[in-house]
Amino acid sequence: MTDRKRVVIVGAGFGGISAAKKLAGKEVDVVLIDRRNHHLFQPLLYQVATADLSPAEIAWPIRSIFSSYANVSVFMGEVTGLDLAGRRVIAGDRDLGFDYLVIATGAVTSYFGNDHWAKVAPGLKNITEATDIRKRLLLAFEQAENSEDPEERRRLLNFIVVGGGPTGVEMAGAIAELAKQALSHDFRRIDPRDARIILAEGGPRLLAAFPEDLSDYTQKSLENIGVEVRTNHQVSDITALGAQIGDEFIPSANVIWGAGVRVDHLGDWTGHETDRGGRMMVNADLSIPGHDDVFVIGDAAHVPWRDGLTVPGIAPAAKQQGKYVGARILDHMAGCKTKPFAYRHAGNLATIGRHRAVIDFNGFKLRGWLAWWFWGLAHIYFLIGLRAPALVMVQWVWSYLFRKKGARLITGQMPGETADPVTPPVN
Asked: Contact 264/279 with Cβ under 8 angstroms?
């Protein structure tokens, strides 16, 4: 028997990894649970989706991150329920007891009640979705090259991005650069520069969390590289044939969703209050009411911040919360008090395209090429490990110098292809 406490961390995103790192090497046993075996740097998923980077350059095996820490173990599985009274995490047919629980499950794509759109308008939350979008984008150009129907060609070369936040802005700019730069000389029967990229935002401006002048700069920059920006335009329907944007139906073979997120299951699992997006209401120390040994962090937590706002669902915030909760658990075990969590906002960043980005450092603003380089260095700084940042830097320099996309591979099952092709017998 041992008196060592067990901390179970659900989710290996930025928050979960940071909490586990804070506890690594300490006198406590840590079990890190995730449905996948890798940690993913989500802010660069759009570069996988547009063939700038390969998945291996933005994802790392969780076990390798903690291979030097004997007190951290990794359990690959999907959590299906929680028993807070019995201090158990339920993962299928397995139960994991805990002394402390950290919930860092992250968020999933929200279609605002139109979940049937997911089949024709993929979101961008994991590698599978990113590589699927990459396949769709590249296949559209290939199929347009082979098509004899002018209307079908136009539909294939119409690309619609829904949502004017950082994900939508970055995705629309990257598609424009893919079509009008990287692929511009690769085809013979079509001109990829004829591609039409539409960015639809239901609100009055792009990047609503940024100052208005940076939003204006973002819209003008996107329009300069060939993106049609439609603000105050709601998307009311999406089908396999295209999307209804305002009063116009635009035929398209590629609609990409970047308009919202939600958190699943927490309210049902815990019986505690959540906000409209499913985020758990937490105390000042990020614990949930009535349970000082259960914490919720990252995208899954509703944490009041300032001026009626909540802490944003971005990587730096999740890392701060994970580090705080790790320290809070150690203090609790030692009988020490911990100050309430205080979020330190470093700023907002978004890239628009080659030599174009916007940054707001709490009122200090950057735009253009300097912001673009700063954005790149900031993202490399946040990459986990030693090998990946060097690879990403080399890939970016290659793309910058030669305007080439390094991962233009169409992988996965092709349209009309059977899942398990059978080799015919040899007679």
From this structure: no
Does residue 73 surpass a pLDDT of 50?
yes
Do 229 and 206 touch, CB atoms closer than 8 A?
Answer: yes
Least confident span in 31-45, 124-138, 205-219, 405-419: 405-419
Backbone angles phi, psi at 368, to 5 degrees: 85, -150
Alpha carbon distance 307, 158 (integer Å):
40
The angle at the Cα of 16, spanning 15 to 20, to the nearest 5 degrees, equals: 120
Phi-psi region of 357 (alpha: psi -120 to 50; beta: other; left: phi over 0): beta
| Residue positions counted in the chain | 427
C-alpha distances in Å from residue 18, one per residue of 78, 281, 309, 322, 342? 20, 21, 24, 5, 16
Identify which of 354, 405, 388 has the alpha carbon closest to the alpha carbon of residue 225. Answer: 354
170 catalytically annotated: yes
Asked whether the beta carbons of 47 and 174 are under 8 A apart, the reply is: yes
Residue 294: CB atoms within 10 A of its CB come to 23
What integer pLDDT is reported at residue 385 of this predicted model?
Answer: 55
Out of 129, 170, 177, 201, which one is annotated catalytic?
170
Per-residue model confidence as pLDDT tens digits over 10-55: 999 999 999 999 999 999 999 999 999 999 999 989 999 998 888 8
DSSP 414: P
Q: Cα–Cα distance between 58 and 40 in angstroms, integer?
A: 6
Amino acid at 227: V
Residues 6+ apart with CB under 8 A from 344: 320
Burial group, residue 421, by CB count within 10 angstroms (0-12, 13-18, 19+)? exposed
Mean pLDDT of all residues in 75-103: 96
Token readout for 109 is: 């794509």
How confident is the model over 95-103, as a mean pLDDT? 97
Position 401 pLDDT exceeds 60: no
For the beta carbon of residue 394, count every other beta carbon within 10 angstroms. 12
Q: Two tokens at 391? A: 């690879």
Strand partners, 102: 9, 295
- Both tokens of residue 150? 């002018």
Instruction: Quote the CA–CA distance of 11 and 409 in Å, as a whole number.
Output: 30
Measure the CA angle with vertex 138, ends 132 and 142; round to 5°.
135
Nearest to 205 by CA among 163, 258, 249: 163
| Cα 382 to Cα 377: distance, rounded to the nearest angstrom | 9
User: Phi then psi for 248, rounded to 5 degrees?
Assistant: -115, 135
Q: Which 3 state secondary structure label does DSSP give 303?
A: coil
pLDDT band at 427; cut points 50, 70, 90: very low
